[in-house]
Amino acid sequence: MSKLGIAILHFVLLATQAGPPGNGKLAYVHDGNIWVKTLPAGAPQQISQGGGAESPKWSASGQWLAFQQGRKTIVVSMSGGHQEFDSGQITWSPLRDELGLLDENGLTVIAAGGDEIRKRVVFRNSPSAGVAGFAWNPDATAFALSVITPDPGGRPEFRVGHLWRINVDGTQQRELFTPKERGGVEPAGWSSDGQYIIFRVDSDFSASVASDGLPLFSIPGSGGAPQQLASEVLVPPDFVSISPVKREVLIVAGGGRETWTNKRLVMSDPSTGRVTELTDQRSVALSPARSADGNLIAYVGSPDNKESQRADVGAVIGPNGKKSVQPVQSGVDEPKTTLNQRRIWMIGVDGKSRQLTSDSRYRDEYPLWSADGRFLAFIRIDQQGKASVWTLSLDSNAPQKAVDDIALPSIGWFGYYGNIDWSKYVAWYR
Fold first, then answer.
1. What end-to-end distance do the CA atoms of the chain give, in Å?
2. Where in 151-282 does DSSP place strands (E)?
3. Could you tell me which of 74, 264, 362, 384 has the fewest CB atoms within 10 Å of its CB?
4. Residues 6+ apart with CB under 8 A from 321
5. What is the rounded CA–CA span in Å between residue 262 and residue 253?
6. What is the DSSP letter of 158?
7. What 3-state class would DSSP assign to 169?
8. How far apart are CA 371 and CA 23, in angstroms?
9. Global pTM value
10. pLDDT digits (tens, 9 = 90+) for 77-99
11. What angle do CA 359, 419, 248 make, to 5 degrees?
């Protein structure tokens, strides 16, 4: 049996194990390969070989796992089947074991069942239009598409971005929105009721502008006028959180690529644009996640590293020559200090925040909820820059280590301006 076959057999054995209720299965990257473990105490099993694997994603049933390795998408099943595809973006259907992916043909859907995998092209690229991104609607009957139409003269600076809607069978293509000024349109998802598409507008197709935040909008899925939800939102996937049961969208709002300052957690109604602020300017909030019933919100909180808020307590000699102890301005509060103060927080049904973790030996990131809302999984980075996965029971409030070592990006523990896209390294089926 090949190494890949052995890895898939391990996956089959793991997928059939019954874990403790609510804890599910964790896929993660370790030493460049995908591993899977039943939480909290299952034996880890290696899924991929050869290194360079990332972005694990579970299907709706948890019986299939997709990940990217090199320029390939690998899909493995608990029954032993596997397939490889040349693709870019991949996203599973929210309801069925169907994988949407972008390939040279356009938007393709892979229907997985048993050992058989079937393909169909939903939107075919052409010289006049190509798909650049997509998002499933909640009942998996339609897509929101980012479509690019090139300049007839072949000048890339004059290409145009559009937001389209299309049924999953490829019928009823409809253009919903095109910016007045040239730029890209990126769908981030749909509201839980399927009535609104959430999307960003990338002015002038500028990666530099996008790094400092893009405006976020909603638009009726049947067509209509767009509604701005936030003026500046960074592009990593955990800066926008869409609940499957609550219409309001959780947004990390605030411009500037530095994630240690000017990042507030707000809740916006896609039908009206009404914004409710959930955190204040004294703190930074990141990676919001709603529990399955939508009633609890977990997020990463830390002090806001504003220059105006940097103060130490020290001795000051007054005009009368007397000493007093009071806050004094200090320039030594580096971003690293603020990052190391990141902790997991929760907003309860009463709307009040409470801190869930407090261990100063770690920086805590990326909370994920269990299906029953009793547990959280999250990432910890220790003072040596080593990352691990922990779980936290809301009943005991005592964190437990679940996975000892997961990958960090090549740029290291600091990430990109303090941000790490953990969806490339961890996926929890719960």
1. 31
2. 160-167, 174-177, 183-190, 196-203, 214-220, 227-233, 240-242, 249-253, 264-268, 275-277
3. 384
4. none
5. 8
6. G
7. coil
8. 8
9. 0.87
10. 877 778 899 888 999 999 999 99
11. 90
